[in-house]
């Protein structure tokens, strides 16, 4: 079974505003609401590919209920912990002359809620994959991901982490199966600017030296690189297409890589191709990618 953990799920309010201007009333010309948050997006794409998963995490208030309801409509199983106070966040993704995002805070998660999550993680075995991704509310310590990995380590499940900076750096010594920073996040870790695949690869090696097994670095329209656990480097350009909504492209890539690993018995070249094509198929569509959309891109890229 694949489990995803999303600490701070969201309703993503995706809007188009023609020539957004600050300090005045702007009107939308397009709007759509999608359930969001990194682990949730991974679960939706896995379901689109026909993989069973259980989405874990924390929900609060009417927005939390709506996220759960919408997730159910995508055919995803979930077992969220209800936080007593506050609201699950609404994240605004505005397309205009530039893309702007305003992500909400989310509810304060209490220790009793965290304890419930740890209880749920007791069932994991070496047959399972645990995906922990996205930001955590400010009230939680930056050791949160580390604590989870330390807790599940005796069960030998495969752990996938998609997080930034300290959250990510603190888990490397536990040898996560996969990490997926983008080139900007990777650059921030080492205080450098990484624009090309050649510039990115040495820093992927540094993360591997620090303990990560497979390092997938996404680069939006410039494709991605993979450094696999055997030290082999792979590079792919992004497939060509018309970008409609790139929210969730990175999460789709994570789901595609996991799906590719399962389908091919861990042929990383295949998993990498499926990951890249999943990210791009999501970017080329209003919703997250479907199996058919990804297969079409994979056939073009082969
Ligand atoms: N503009 C784009 N054109 C083509 N593919 C894209 C585009 N943006 C994203 N993708 C695909 O999705 C993957 C993940 O996107 P990226 O934006 O790097 O992730 P994140 O959302 O985590 O920052 C990329 O490696 C690429 O395959
Ligand atoms: O958990 P974070 O880092 O605050 O990000 C949450 C946002 O990221 C998303 O999961 C999209 O992530 P990606 O575009 O990186 O795949 C949105 O659905 C959500 O609004």
Automatic annotation (TrEMBL):
Ranges for domain Carbohydrate kinase PfkB: 7-290
Signal peptide location: none
EC number: 2.7.1.144
UniProt xrefs under PROSITE patterns: PFKB_KINASES_2
Class of the enzyme per the UniProt entry, highest EC level: transferase
Transmembrane regions listed in the UniProt entry: none
Gene Ontology CC terms, in alphabetical order: cytosol
Pfam families documented for this protein: PfkB
A single GO BP: D-tagatose 6-phosphate catabolic process
Reaction(s) this enzyme catalyzes, per UniProt: D-tagatofuranose 6-phosphate + ATP = D-tagatofuranose 1,6-bisphosphate + ADP + H(+); beta-D-fructose 1-phosphate + ATP = beta-D-fructose 1,6-bisphosphate + ADP + H(+)
GO function terms (MF aspect): 1-phosphofructokinase activity; ATP binding; tagatose-6-phosphate kinase activity
Keywords: ATP-binding, Kinase, Lactose metabolism, Nucleotide-binding, Transferase
Annotated pathway: Carbohydrate metabolism; D-tagatose 6-phosphate degradation; D-glyceraldehyde 3-phosphate and glycerone phosphate from D-tagatose 6-phosphate: step 1/2
Listed NCBIfam families: 1-PFK, pfkB
Role noted for this protein: Catalyzes the ATP-dependent phosphorylation of fructose-l-phosphate to fructose-l,6-bisphosphate.
Family per record: Belongs to the carbohydrate kinase pfkB family. Belongs to the carbohydrate kinase PfkB family. LacC subfamily.
Protein name: Tagatose-6-phosphate kinase
Species whose genome carries this gene: Faecalicoccus pleomorphus
Gene: fruK
């Amino acid at each position: 079974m694949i489990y995803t953990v999303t600490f701070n799920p969201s309703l993503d309010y995706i809007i188009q505003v023609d020539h957004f201007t600050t300090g005045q009333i702007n009107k939308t010309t397009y709007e759509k609401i999608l359930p969001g948050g990194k682990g949730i997006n991974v679960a939706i794409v896995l379901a689109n590919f026909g993989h069973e998963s259980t989405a874990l995490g924390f929900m609060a208030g009417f927005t939390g209920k709506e996220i759960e309801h919408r997730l159910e409509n995508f055919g995803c199983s979930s077992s969220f912990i209800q936080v007593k106070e506050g609201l699950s966040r609404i994240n605004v993704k505005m397309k205009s002359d530039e893309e702007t995002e305003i992500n909400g805070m989310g509810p304060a998660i209490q220790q009793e809620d965290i304890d419930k999550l740890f209880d749920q993680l007791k069932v994991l075995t070496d047959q399972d994959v645990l995906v922990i991704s996205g930001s955590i509310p400010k009230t939680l310590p930056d050791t949160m991901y580390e604590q989870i990995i330390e807790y599940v380590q005796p069960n030998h499940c495969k752990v996938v982490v998609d997080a930034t900076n300290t959250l990510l750096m603190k888990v490397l010594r536990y040898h996560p199966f996969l990490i997926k920073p983008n080139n900007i996040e990777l650059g921030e870790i080492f205080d450098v600017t990484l624009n090309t695949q050649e510039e990115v690869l040495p820093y992927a090696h540094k993360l591997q030296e620090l303990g990560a097994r497979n390092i997938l670095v996404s680069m939006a329209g410039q494709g991605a690189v993979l450094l696999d656990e055997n030290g082999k480097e792979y590079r792919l350009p992004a497939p060509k297409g018309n970008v409609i909504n790139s929210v969730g492209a990175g999460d789709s890539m994570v789901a595609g890589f996991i799906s590719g690993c399962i389908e091919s018995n861990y042929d990383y070249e295949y998993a990498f191709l499926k990951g890249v094509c999943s990210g791009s198929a999501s970017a080329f569509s209003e919703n997250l990618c479907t199996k058919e959309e990804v297969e079409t891109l994979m056939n073009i890229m082969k």
